[in-house]
Amino acid sequence: MLFGVPGRCVLFVHAHPDDETLSTGGAIARYAADPSVRCVVVTCTLGEEGEVIPPALRELAPDRADQLGGYRIGELAGALAALGGPEHRFLGGLARWRDSGMGHGEGTRAVALPDLHPRALTAGDLDLQVQQLLEVVDEVAPQVLVSYADDGGYGHPDHVRAHELTMAVARARPVRVFHAVRSRSVLEAGLAGIRDLPGLPFRFPEPDELPTVPDAVVTTRLDVSAHRDRLVAAMRAHATQVAVWEPAYAMSNDVAQPLLDVEEYVLATPGEAPADDLFGGLA
To answer: Using CA of residue 70, residue 242, residue 76, residue 136, what is the dihedral sign?
Structure first.
């Protein structure tokens, strides 16, 4: 760090408000708290097509008042503040791209919808979106980019597009890319910890209902236990999308998921994979 200016930068690229918290909230909190790191989050859409959990807010939904996207701007601001205040950008500017929505496939898998809004992220020009992300990359000069694996984690088309954008940037700029994942063993251990909790208000998942990756593909694990309080506060900020009952949470599908003290990543660009630090081994 030179004269108070952070010498390292990590850029998280996410599809919708709440993804930054659910996929990488611990890492964001960790690096936002490090004065030597510039931590930046890009959100591609406002999440307009999300399903709304609290009954009092369901008129915001896209098939009713269609005001959910604007409401989620405030939720995102609250979550980012809870995570330590990383910098934030919307891809192409505020509300440039709309949530593409999703259909429901097997288990908790998402599938693409046959009809898209004209401003839907996945209906947009990929080259234009790459250029918009490159503008952010050239502004903040990250050494590390973080997004999703090629299936978007669970198949959501906007997550897949965020992956495509991130990998296109990695071909154009010298950056290290990580994909946020969750291994079978870590998830199973977390589920074991909540299985027999009295009063669990969510449905316990069926075997293999929640998406995981084989343990062998994970390259990097971050201990984020010190940031649990920040992560839970950020989840609570996304009240339209996440219901929290510590040590568990659920989305609108009401499937219980454990709050985990470890975040897992796969190094997606050439080089030696760091064990416990996204910047590990970088000069």
So the answer is: negative
Reported as a single tens digit per residue, the pLDDT across 33-45 is 999 999 999 999 9
Alpha-carbon distance of 103 to 245, in angstroms, equals 27
Give the percent of the chain with pLDDT over 90.
91
> What domains can be seen in the chain, in order of their start residue?
8-267 (3.40.50.10320)
- Number of CB atoms found within 10 A of residue 172's CB: 14
Q: What is the mean pLDDT of residues 21-31?
A: 98
pTM above 0.90, yes or no: yes
Asked if 71 and 226 touch (Cβ cutoff 8 Å), the reply is: no
Lookup result for tokens 């604007």:
70
Report the SS3 class of residue 210: coil
Distance CA(104)–CA(253), nearest Å, equals: 10
Nearest to 47 by CA among 120, 146, 148: 120
Residue the block writes with tokens 């008129």:
59
